[in-house]
Amino acid sequence: MALIAFLQAQNCSNYVGSWRAPASASDFLTAEYFARIARTLEDGRFDMAFFDDRLAMPDIYDNSHELAVRHGIRSVKMDPTVVMTVMAMATRHLGVASTYSTTYYEPFHVARHFATLDLMTGGRAAWNVVTSLNDSEAANFGRGEHLEHDLRYDRADEFVDIVTRMWATWEPDALVVDKETGFFADPAKVHRLEHDGKFFTSHGTFPVPPSPQGRPVLLQAGASGRGMAFAANWADVIFTHFANVESGTRTYVKLRQGIEDAGRDPASVVIAPLINVVTAETPELVERKQAMLEGLARDEDALALLCEALNTDFGTRPYDEPFTDTELRAMSYQGLRDRVITLSGKENPSVRDFVEFSGRGKLREAKIIAGTPDKVADQLEELHGTCADGFVLAAASVPGTYDDFSRLVSPVLRKRGLLPDRYEASTLRENLGLPPAGETRDAA
């Protein structure tokens, strides 16, 4: 069972009320804060700490950053690749992953950045591939507006193709480093990249040799049809959302079929849905803790998050006025939009429907698994293999959620043989059970 911790290099988790939880620490601007979390995750046998990211503060609601700053709605956003390096240095086995955008960076920069991280962590690095979401991100990079949805994925396809080809330019045994003969590396085993495409031109020799795991692991969480096709083609690990076992199983089957259609072995990809876990020693404590955590949510915060994700300002719109077809088509995060349409049963939902059915800013944005440690383990075991190869654990408090899981649930999962007693390998790729880099395509 793959275990991945869902993190942000900021003042809160994806649950923006988390910074106000009693079990949340407030030294989130320090290295020790993230080092403590890393050690906790490694004690709990997590495979990876994964950092989600946006390249702008949520400032689309009412065309202002005022609410985000006042309520601490993701108003701090540090560079997650720096933070994840701190976590890697505090541990020996924990994999570390970060989001980096294919819309606002260049392939060579990303390829060298993550290849270097992979070497410095001993083969424990991963790149979460995103296309970014909104005009605020575009403005931070001097662009007039964000790219259209499918065009972003067309650019991302070419981007990832270049990056993975750069990572493959050094053959595994190219580096010799023979001091006596002065022979450093075999030029015949280091290959030049020549690329002329629709979005990028890249000609040169990549200067970073491969890590012990060959290349960084690729993550993706596309939720639209185009996004899911992109994930099926490229990702080693795919993140999903699900409301119940039935919908989760449908998504799981659809993704595995998409992976096969892309010429890849479905067994070579880990599919992991996002979950929230609330656990304690007794049912009474679980109930009290869940009520307290759910009470941290505020609808106003949800509006700021929805505007950020959909690239649409809800601030001056009547709360119950349905969006037009044109307005819905213009929304950036199509997977979120489609989920609200499905759950609300309305082809043209209103702002109220988005707040109610998106789960944005609420604990139930991810499936809640609540109960004593044995009950949580029962539910995870039931879901494992049915609609998940592993799980992405979101945090309602940081580090409280990870402390609870590692202290209470992980020992039960280890006892059942669902988690190892100790890490079985040194690289992230091996600990996730992924095949060696370059061997994920069907031999046919």
TrEMBL record:
<dbReference type="GO" id="GO:0004497">
    <property type="term" value="F:monooxygenase activity"/>
</dbReference>
<keyword id="KW-0288">FMN</keyword>
<feature type="domain" description="Luciferase-like">
    <location>
        <begin position="29"/>
        <end position="389"/>
    </location>
</feature>
<dbReference type="InterPro" id="IPR051260">
    <property type="entry name" value="Diverse_substr_monoxygenases"/>
</dbReference>
<protein>
    <submittedName>
        <fullName>NtaA/DmoA family FMN-dependent monooxygenase</fullName>
        <ecNumber>1.14.-.-</ecNumber>
    </submittedName>
</protein>
<dbReference type="InterPro" id="IPR036661">
    <property type="entry name" value="Luciferase-like_sf"/>
</dbReference>
<dbReference type="InterPro" id="IPR011251">
    <property type="entry name" value="Luciferase-like_dom"/>
</dbReference>
<keyword id="KW-0285">Flavoprotein</keyword>
<dbReference type="InterPro" id="IPR016215">
    <property type="entry name" value="NTA_MOA"/>
</dbReference>
<keyword id="KW-0560">Oxidoreductase</keyword>
<keyword id="KW-0503">Monooxygenase</keyword>
<dbReference type="Pfam" id="PF00296">
    <property type="entry name" value="Bac_luciferase"/>
</dbReference>
<comment type="similarity">
    <text>Belongs to the NtaA/SnaA/DszA monooxygenase family.</text>
</comment>
